Amino acid sequence: MSGQVPVTGDAAVDAALVELENIEELSTGEKLERFSRAQRALAEELEDTHSEGATS
Questions:
Q1: How far apart, in whole angstroms, are the C-alpha atoms of residue 48 and residue 56?
Q2: Which contiguous run of DSSP H or E holds residue 41?
Q3: pTM reported for the whole predicted model
Q4: How far apart (Å, rounded) are the C-alpha atoms in residues 54 and 26?
């Protein structure tokens, strides 16, 4: 993602998007690490959202 990082209003999602900013400039190993961190953060956010919905 190059250019301006989209803002979703959800802090965890926004942080994951920032992780992917300028990713094309990184080595393959660094890209993998960034994608992995972003994926974990988004998965945790989805789990939290799902858990909150189940208790409401």
A1: 12
A2: helix 28-55
A3: 0.74
A4: 39
